Amino acid sequence: MLKIALIGCTGSIGRGVVDVVRRNRDLFSFSALACGNDEEGLRALEGEFAPKISYCAKNGAPMPEDLFADCDVAFIAAGGFIGLSYTLAALRAKKRVALANKESLVVGGQLVTREAEAAGAEIVPVDSEHSAIFQALGMRREGKFSRLVLTASGGPFLHMEKEKLARVTAKETLRHPTWKMGAKVTVDSATLLNKGYEIIEAKWLYGAQFGQIEAVVHPESIVHSIVCFEDGAAIAQLGYPDMRVPIQLALTYPERFPCAPQLDFERLGALHFLPLPRDKFPCFGLAVEAGRRGGTCPAVLNGAAEVAVQAFLAGSITFPQIAETIEDALCRIPRAEAESYAALAEADALARRAAATHIYGK
Ligand code: MG
C-alpha cells in the first residue's frame, strides 16, 4: 500500500489523483491531504479517506511539520509559486516527489535540483509532456537524446488573427480544445506561456540545454511529446488526452495498471504537427528567454504572470496585455542569483508589485 501526501487535493490535478486512488484502494491510501482554500472540499475528502493529517493553508495557517512524515510519495499538485515551498519541504523529508506543480522547477529549478540531489530524493514528472519524455526514455530522467520535442495543442486561439486577440474574453480563453485543467494553466495554454514553462521544466528534469528543447503545435493532443536520438530515430508517447494516465504512472512506475481507454487507431484519423506561432503568442518567447537568463528571471516572469492572468480573468486587462505586463516586469526588475528560497520569494514579490503597478497604476 503506497501512502500519498497530496498537496492541492481540491484542484484539477488533485481531483485526478483522488480519482486514481478511489479506483485503486488496494494500491493507494492518503497519509495527508492539503488544500489552499477549499475547506469544504477538504472536509469531504477527509470523511472519505481518513488521512492522518489534513491541512488547509487558508488565512496563513502554517504548514504542519509532519506533513510529509508518514508518506511514501509527496504528490505536489498545488498551483503557483506557493507549490515550491511544498516541493522543497518534501525533498528535505527525503520523499519521492510526484511533481505536478510547474512553478517548482520553472522558478526554483536550481534550488529544487540541489535539494533533490542532497536528499537523494527522486522527482517524477506528472505533466503530460514530461511524463511522455520520461516514458520515451524508458522511465528514466536521463538518456543520450539529441532533442526533446514538446507538443502543444495550440490552445483555443491557434488560428485566430493576431489583431483579434485583443477582443477575446476570459470565457473563450477557458474553453480549451483538448485538455480539462485549472483556470490559470488553461489561460497559460492559450497564451503559450505554459509551453515556455514546460521548456524550462524540461531543462531541469532532463539536464537538457535550451537549444535541445523544442515545442511544436499538435492540435489533436494525442502525441504527448517526442524524444529524438542522434541516429535520427524518434520515440513518442501516445494516448488520449487524459491526465489520469501520467498521474497514475507517477505513483506506480515502473509498473502500469489499467487506467484510461485504449487508443482506437482505426478511428484516430490524421495527426498534425505545425510550427509554433511565436509572433502571435509572445509569452512563449518571454518564458524561454527568462529561462535562458536564469537566476531570478523565471521568478519575475511567473510572479508577473500570476497577477496578469488574475487581472485578465477579472476583465481588467486584455489578452495581449498579459504578455505586456510580464515583459514590463522582466525589463524593470534586475536579475539576481537564485541561491535561496528567500531570493526567489523577493523576486516574486517585486514582480507582483511591478505587475500590479503596470495594470492598475498603483
Ligand atoms: Mg502540459
Describe, in plain words, how this protein is organized in 3D.
Helix 4 (102-119) packs antiparallel against helix 12 (297-313). Strand 1 (2-7), helix 1 (12-22) and strand 2 (28-35) form a beta-alpha-beta unit. The chain is α/β, with parallel strands linked by helices and 362 residues long. The protein folds into two domains: 2-125, Rossmann fold (3-Layer(aba) Sandwich), CATH 3.40.50; 147-221 and 274-360, RNA polymerase sigma factor, region 2, helix turn helix motif (Rna Polymerase Sigma Factor, Chain: A). It contains 14 helices and ten strands. The chain is 45% helix and 15% strand. Residues 127-129, 198 line the site of magnesium ion.
Ions and ligands: magnesium ion
Instruction: Tell me, briefly, the overall form.
Output: globular
For CATH, the homologous superfamily of the largest domain is named as: RNA polymerase sigma factor, region 2, helix turn helix motif
Radius of gyration: 20 Å
Unreliable residue runs: none
Number of E-type strands? 10
N- and C-termini, Cα separation: 52 Å
SS strand fraction: 5-15%
What is the subunit arrangement here?
single chain
Mean pLDDT: 96
Helix and strand composition category: alpha/beta
- The helix fraction, in percent, is 40-55%
Question: Order of strands in the sheet with the most strands?
Answer: 3-2-1-4-5-6
Give the SSE string: EHEHEEHEHEHEHHHEEEHHHHHH
At the first level of CATH, the class of the largest domain is Mainly Alpha
